[in-house]
Amino acid sequence: MTNGRDASKLCPLNIEYREPYCRLERAVSEDIVIKEPPVLFEETQKIVTQLVDLLKAPVLTYWSGSRGSVCNNDVNGFYELLETIGRQETIYLFIKSDGGNPKASLRIANLIRRYAKRLVTLVPLQCASAATMLTLASDEILMGPMAYLTAVDTSLTHDLSPVDRDNDRVSVSLDELTRVVRLWQGQSKREDDVNPYQHLFQYVHPLVIGAVDRAESLSIMLCEELLSYHIEDRGKIRQIADTLNSKYPSHGYPILVDEARRIGLNVGEMTHDVNEMLLKLNLLYSEMGQKATTDFSEIRSHSNEILNILETSGKQIYYQNDKDWFYRSEERRWITLNDNSSWRKLEKIGEETRKSILHIA
Hints:
Blueprint: H1 7-10, E1 21-24, E2 33-36, H2 41-55, E3 59-64, H3 73-85, E4 88-96, H4 102-115, E5 116-123, H5 130-135, E6 140-143, E7 155-156, E8 172-173, H6 174-187, H7 197-200, H8 206-227, H9 234-246, H10 257-263, E9 267-269, H11 272-288, E10 293-295, E11 300-312, E12 315-328, E13 333-337, E14 342-349, E15 352-358
Parallel strand pairs: 3-4, 4-5, 5-6, 6-9
Antiparallel strand pairs: 1-2, 3-11, 7-8, 10-11, 11-12, 12-13, 12-14, 14-15
């Protein structure tokens, strides 16, 4: 989201831009304000209601920002929404996400399929990695002109993974390791260089390599399980799962409509009206999810950001980061203090909008 004051002029859908809200932080100084993201429940509910009227079926929305992800706690949020709408013949699921935990995708899909005889996924923009995996459980995937899926090959951040320049653990994928070994075998000329792993182990712990190999097998198994919700042909299921896990040279390779059809997925093109509504909804969610960081000094700041948003008619659930950050220079890493992050729920009760904390252990 553009953070300039003239951002509304750049928005083709004419949604008014708002700066993050602020509140006083007395614990630091009465002169310092803590930025807070706007919560646009009334605006998003109008679009969700329009989508329900247009599609003639309940709509669930699942949106994550750049620092949000598909996670296990989302299952609890979906349960709240599904209990609100009850069991249905058809449910439409709007997804915009860069991915996350693939096992959470299976749990979310299993939960939704218990409430929906037919599931249709709406994809107007990116639906990557674990989010792509979630779409595999739907009977039909409707994609807009800017939509794409991605490969689902698994990367893993392990306790023994290598660290980056900020001293954070980095993710490692089996495809990356395999390519390193293959390149080494193709280019090495020394007769004593018979085992590339003895060199690789200097940079990647052997337990990490074993864990990544195991995760790759898990990814294929998850894909097959998700596809089995609506495909009976085991050969076709295996072919789609293998393609998504091993065909593409890049984890983020964009799989567009025609490519998704060639893979064997039941993909259709979204109508213009539905696509425009979802893009408007995405802009509102993006405004809610805009980065709201307050810097007190070079080593201390406060983060207040909405990461994941789930919504249906009458109810919105979102996860909000709300914590202080302190840079510990001797360890070269940021640590958190005063963490008030939580899942929060907004719901319509008659004419009243009620806000509460959604406690998830």
